[in-house]
Amino acid sequence: MKKKVLLMGKSGSGKTSMRSIIFANYIARDTRRLGATIDVEHSHVRFLGNLVLNLWDCGGQEAFMENYFASQRDNIFRNVEVLIYVFDVESREMEKDMHYYQSCLEAILQNSPEARIFCLVHKMDLVAEEQREEIFRAREEDLKGLSKPLECTCFRTSIWDETLYKAWSSIVYKLIPNVKALESSLKQFAAIVDADEVLLFERATFLVVSHCQRRQHRDAHRFEKVSNIVKQFKLSCSKLAAQFQSMEVRNSVFAAFIDGFTSNTYVMVEMSDPKIPSEATLINIRNARKHFEKLEKVSSSAPSQYQ
Predict the structure, then answer these.
(1) Which residue ranges form the domains of the chain, and what is each CATH number?
(2) 3-class secondary-structure state, position 46
């Protein structure tokens, strides 16, 4: 089951850098050596089971953009499930950026009216921290107004912090079939093991695809922080010719376990009772694998709007 995802925006806005970080295991500083995208770069990313993201990274040079709306219009904008449009927050050509975005929306409305629209206000690290929220809210209001009659969801992002993972996790979550059944099973599993929280990560990208929270947690950005930290640790392991399999973190007030779960996921179980033996939790994780493997196969074989 393939789902077509368009990644668009002006040249230099950061599209290819974020794609490389999320899907190709780049770290932020290494993206500086990436060149500009020429025309359209296609990549197929197997995500959960049979779910494949057919990612079209569209070069943002003016000649290419004009071509997308003219001779390639039907090819580019037909059967799109998701449009991700990236804006450089410090662009000096905002009027032109908005013009191209509006042209994309018109083409989407004509060819894929059911597509979901996401706007990433990118490179927010270049904005003074005390101004970020105000600037983002103003930009979000403009984009939502410009997008009508379509609806868009906006995120502020940077390759230097957890906001990039938060945005892409939210986008991918919208593409997972039968996600409510997955969340229901996670809730049952969390109750059985008496966990405060259970997170489900996609194995390759370590994006959070689902979670169950049974007790309040003060850090609203913990999913993305954990994802970022573990992914960097996995990369460090690979440089030493070692393979990351599992991790346990424990102190006097909590215990957390990260372990391989299904063939496409890792699971993190966090609990506030450190007296529960590690072996008991690991046995419960192992026993739950078969159920989630079966659920994953059912979810990934669900019919898609576009094949």
Answers:
(1) 2-173 (3.40.50.300), 179-300 (3.30.450.190)
(2) strand
